[in-house]
Design a protein that fits this description.
With about 190 residues, this protein is an alpha+beta fold. The chain has four helices and seven strands; from the N terminus they run H-E-E-E-H-H-E-E-E-E-H. It is elongated, with a radius of gyration of 22 Å.
Length: about 190
């Protein structure tokens, strides 16, 4: 019985101790320019949104090593994480508060993963109004294409980070102490 109670207690407390939360980063005008704590394949990343060309933002946009994610599958996981953790979880508005996105129908966040002969492949984390919805799509363009003049697209710069720890509320410690006390009393009887 004691082992069962301790196991249940462990299952309740451990996820709370190791849980990290997505933090939205905004400028003084309330415009979102990034986020921290995006989990992709058991690793945590911060993102910054950047307008410009792939060449300017990603060190020439001509080598796979210019990008955080190097394959379609890796970029797919990252883009899906943006949809799941940013668009659905932390930020679910469809206004122009996202840097680089002023379109009323959708915004595409470009996660670039593969350059080729003056072009690039990327995956879009799409955020749209109810008719379009959220999702992931593929995209390719010239490396010199500049998103500054587009109102639907913005590049995502990914950086590997350590997760931000969420503090465990005092109530959890109180609950844990009470459970240990109950086990001790039960054991004496």
């Amino acid at each position: 019985m004691q082992n069962k109670i301790l196991a249940i207690l462990g299952f309740l407390i451990l996820p709370l101790i190791s849980n990290a939360a997505v933090t939205i980063l905004t400028d003084s005008n309330g415009q979102i320019y990034g986020a921290e704590g995006i989990e992709v394949n058991n690793s945590f990343y911060s993102i910054r949104l950047s307008e410009g060309s792939c060449i300017d933002i990603f060190n020439g946009c001509d080598q796979v090593t210019d990008f955080t994610f190097h394959t379609f599958d890796e970029a797919m996981l990252a883009s899906q994480a943006l949809v799941d953790q940013l668009f659905i979880g932390a930020w679910d508005r469809t206004d122009d508060s996202l840097l680089g996105c002023d379109d009323e129908f959708y915004c595409g966040l470009l996660t670039v993963y593969n350059p080729y002969d003056g072009h690039f492949f990327s995956l879009l984390a799409l955020h749209g109004v109810s008719a379009i919805g959220n999702g992931v799509g593929d995209h390719s363009a010239y490396a010199a294409w500049d998103t500054t003049y587009e109102d639907k697209y913005v590049f995502v710069i990914w950086s590997h980070t350590q997760p931000a720890m969420v503090p465990v509320p005092a109530a959890i410690w109180l609950f844990g102490s009470a459970m240990i006390g109950l086990v001790s009393i039960k054991r004496k009887n």
